Amino acid sequence: MQKLTFGSLLDVVGELFSDEISIAVSNTNEYIYYRPSKRIDLKIRVGDPVKEGTIAYKALQTEQKVSEFINRDVFGVPYHGMAVPFHYDEQIQGCVTAIYPALTEGKSVVTVKTSDGWKPIPFHRVKYLQVKERKTYVYADNFAGTNKKALQDFEYMLPRESFIRCHRSFIVNVNHIAEIFPDTHSTFLLSMDNGAQIPVSQSYSSYFRKLLGF
């Protein structure tokens, strides 16, 4: 068997958790490896410095495992994570960080802009969200409005057991999917209970099938 390189080994490990967890590896100053997941992407690039305030920074400073929630001030996205430092000849060399999405924190509605003001919509009534013309549209029963948050923000805010990212432009509430069909232009086509047709793209198909169990 050919010798396994450091990068290829990390790719294999990353593939095990590619649906849920992003993995970052740094030396004592900068990131040397990063693999994003479908659930969360901090947009880290190889060569980026390890920022103060991140769990990687804290692990390097304390030389101990760190596990905690980090708010959106650091990367623009809130996340939970665990960073574990590694040593060689008793000298700290860097750390490995596992990054996973922040869970919903007590919210139960999405507030949307209407022509007259704002309307709170309970999560269970939201059928799907769509980005178009640089706006996020929220669809419920016979109603649609806009919200200033990006679709990525909703991906971390909405309950994971009900809402799934299925396309770069869509998040759907699985409780409002009426049927799922194969499609020639995308991997699947979702028929929602309000009559809307929503594509599931190739990049999200594996994660989508895994969560829905088919």
Can you walk through the features of this model?
The chain has 214 residues and is of the alpha+beta class. It has two domains: 6-101, 2-Layer Sandwich (Beta-Lactamase), CATH 3.30.450.20; 109-212, OB fold (Dihydrolipoamide Acetyltransferase, E2P) (Beta Barrel). The chain contains four helices and 15 strands. The protein has a five-stranded antiparallel beta sheet with strand order 2-1-5-4-3, with helices on both faces. The protein has a five-stranded antiparallel beta sheet with strand order 10-9-8-12-11. The protein has a three-stranded antiparallel beta sheet with strand order 13-14-15. Strand 8 and strand 9 (135-140) form a beta hairpin. The longest helix has 11 residues, at 6-16. The chain is elongated and about 65 Å long. The protein starts with 5 loop residues before the first helix and ends with a helix. The mean pLDDT is 85.
What's the average pLDDT? 85
Q: Percent of residues in helical segments?
A: 10-25%
What summary fits the major beta sheet? 5 strands, antiparallel
β-strand amount: 35-45%
Number of strands: 15
CATH architecture classification of the largest domain: Beta Barrel
The whole-angstrom Rg is 20 Å
Which series of helices and strands comes N to C?
A: HEEHEEEEEEEEHEEEEEH
The side-by-side strand order for the widest beta sheet comes to 2-1-5-4-3
The CATH class designation of the largest domain is Mainly Beta
